[in-house]
Amino acid sequence: MVQLESIILYCLMQLNNERTIYSIYHLLKGKKSSQTIQDAHLFNLKKYFGIYDFLSRENFDQIIQMLQDQKLIQSCGLQQFRSTSEGELFLIKNPIPIDLNGWEFHQVTARFWARLSLLIQVASNLEYKETNYIPIQKDKDIHLWLKTVLKEMNVSKKDMGGKLYDELIACFAENSELDPSVLVYRLTGFNQIGLTSLQAAQKLKMDIFDYHLHFINILHFMIRKLGQEPELFPLLAHLHRALMQQNDLTQSSQKTWQLLTLGHSLETIAQIRQLKLSTIEDHLVEITLNFKDFSINEYVEPILQKEILHVSKLIASKQLKLIKDQVKQASYFQIRLVLAKYGG
Amino acid sequence: MELEDLLNKYFGYTAFKTGQKEVISALLNGENTLAMLPTGTGKSLCYQLPGYIFKGHILIISPLLSLMQDQVDQMKRFGEKRVVALNSFLTHIEKEQVLNVLNQYKFIFISPEMLQVPYIIKKLQSLSISLFVIDEAHCISQWGYDFRPDYSKLGEIRKSLCNPLTLALTATATVNVRQDIIQSLGLSKVTKVESTIDRPNIGFYVEEIADYRDKERRVLELVDRLPKPGIVYFSSKKAAEQMAELLSYQQNYRSSVYHGGLEQDSRILIQQQFIHNQLDVICATSAFGMGVNKENIRFVIHFHMPMQIESYLQEIGRAGRDGNPSIAILLYSPGDELLPIQLAEAELPSDQQLDWLFNRTDFAIRTNNRGFKLTNTLKELGGFSDVQWRIVEDLLNRPIQDTSSLQQIKEMLQDFTKKRLKAKKNNIFRMKQWIDTKFCRRQFILEYFNDRLITEVNPCCDRCGLDIRNYHSAEDRPQVELLEVTWMDYLRKLLTNSELSK
């Protein structure tokens, strides 16, 4: 699990002893809490948000123990660790795949893979003129998506397989760092059933955690590429269509946002929704993180904003408590808002 | 039109399999029918074909969501589009949509818990139902091995739908269970179609092995010698995983594990790999097999003892559907019967758990007869497993008389679990008897189901002198050439058909 270890080491360095080790766990799991979302922005760790949704607490603890045993990290307080010089060396020797983009894509990665795998299966069976087969994806939304897309694709059934092949090869060729076998052996088609993630990892002699990372990496690369240059990949570009439509707010924050746009105050929203004011404040922090042009002036005087920022830089810390000690008139909520707005 | 013509027209077959024609003829005569047909003989045809003759809808109650989905997919692939599955897989919106146009579907599959919803019953009452089908009907009986409390209400539901013509289907049911089915459904005149459950091309072989390690060694040996593909069944996920790893790493077999703990994606892939001959051996728990239509399975090995003869028969019945000789092997070590007993106990809520639950103040709030608060917190605090909790929920959601006291209700629950445990232990005991028997194993099973041997079977079982060596593969193991296909070749083969002369 070299790659996962590298990521944890990198996160530790970025966090700079200001958070416990479990903030990394929550980050990798993509926990939808204001704290984790804010951390991802503040410490520049958005790339790794939610890339290990299946990681268990036990797995994580084991890996931390292994890092300790290898002397790559050392304890520096309760549930706190810092990277050792060996750890830094390890990170240089084992760089992290560069196409990961958890924050932007973690919610759509699974959907993208479902679309891709079904598209290939259907194209392959069309190519071999087979109509009787079991779809590898059960999700009805994905089936519906494919139906629409097949109609819109400007290609004859006869040519589809070959063209998809050419586009995939061209897409992979854009990035020589990638190993497409990570993805390709997972694909199912005519008389050929793809491997499960575990089987693929075994075939490629990787452990499952590293395998998963490379798999996500290649998907994220494709999502970005197809989004940026759809004209180069006329068929594959359909995979990207309407993939990203939802914004990244949690459902509850979504509701708060709707009420906010209707002009309600935070207190009223709390009353309407029968939630604690602090919860609504959490939502506001999330909204601030997600909408770059969202103004927080209504909640924090511009002068106070400046002061908070100034202190944060001065003491080189993003720990709320330390800032609060210096800017007594600011509430924790206000400090969080300012850090959310300018910190990330 | 003759039935055979319809069979050919709609399904492309020229002849019926055992029992099918009898069932269909009975239904066309308007007779309620209980059909006990062996696994893999196309039970679903028994209601599909009448569906093309009857004017009204065919309602099929099926207990397993995954199986239901398979059946629906399969019918769709054969061109029947007027088919739908109503179950908890559907989102709220999808459910609404389906219910709004329910009368456009000829074949309606439904899970028993959906039938608990009054709104859905109302919808069904507005349809004209030509045939009411209960799949896996043995789930009705408390004495069946797979009792589902939801199923015991099917009699009432049938009544509320004005007693439509009914077909109860099962692969394995003892005489008692069959009687229970008829009674519980309130069927007055019933035609019984019971084809023999015997599968003459499957030989039985029980082997006593000293301990767990030796069993592992023996499985490796057997897999080496027997023709493949095959299935090895385990009662524990962990043991199945270990064996699959041994087989793939030590022996270089194409082997995978399959159990309910895997993600759905992986389960689908592994099942399909097996069907497409990309795997030699599946190491599985009982979660594997439903809906797997594979003809050429040559062996089924049981590493652990099953919980009852019924499920044993169902599991080995997956071998040899092509009619060629196949072997069912059970490995037994002294004390093996303790594991199924433990499993049986773990499936039921214990007396202590129920005492605890009924003493909780946040549980015993009863405003009317449905006043029990069954929260997840209670489930977790009380250490109830999913299976245990389902039983508690099902029993408490039955209409309870207002007059019964908390104590009485608790006793009702405890009484129920006691009886269930007794039935389960009895099943395990019968299974053990089968292992221990000195006489013909085939005879034993047939007698268990009140069936009779029609023609003599040879080779039959180890007690009748079956020699396992006769099942060994004639040729040596073919050198598995690990032809490494590059990813590019793999992809090219998927997407371009080179044999196609364009």
TrEMBL record, chain A:
Q: Where is the Helicase Helix-turn-helix domain?
A: 252-339
InterPro entries attached here? Helicase_HTH, YpbB-like
Q: What keyword terms does UniProt attach to this protein? A: ATP-binding, Helicase, Hydrolase, Nucleotide-binding
> Which GO MF terms are attached to this record?
helicase activity
So which domain of life are we looking at? Bacteria
Q: Name one Pfam family in it.
A: HTH_40
Q: What is this protein called?
A: ATP-dependent DNA helicase RecQ
Q: Say which species the protein is native to.
A: Neobacillus kokaensis
TrEMBL record, chain B:
User: SUPFAM superfamilies, per this entry?
Assistant: P-loop containing nucleoside triphosphate hydrolases
Matches recorded under Pfam families: DEAD (PF00270), Helicase_C (PF00271), RecQ_Zn_bind (PF16124)
Entry keywords, A to Z: ATP-binding, DNA-binding, Helicase, Hydrolase, Nucleotide-binding
Q: Name one GO molecular function term.
A: helicase activity
Q: Which InterPro entries match?
A: DEAD/DEAH_box_helicase_dom (IPR011545), DNA/RNA_helicase_DEAH_CS (IPR002464), DNA_helicase_ATP-dep_RecQ (IPR004589), Helicase_ATP-bd (IPR014001), Helicase_C-like (IPR001650), P-loop_NTPase (IPR027417), RecQ_Zn-bd (IPR032284), WH-like_DNA-bd_sf (IPR036388)
> In this protein, which residues make up the domain named Helicase C-terminal?
218-382
> Where, by residue number, does the polypeptide cross the bilayer?
none
Domain Helicase ATP-binding: residue ranges: 24-191
Q: Under what name is this protein listed?
A: ATP-dependent DNA helicase RecQ
Q: Gene name, please?
A: recS
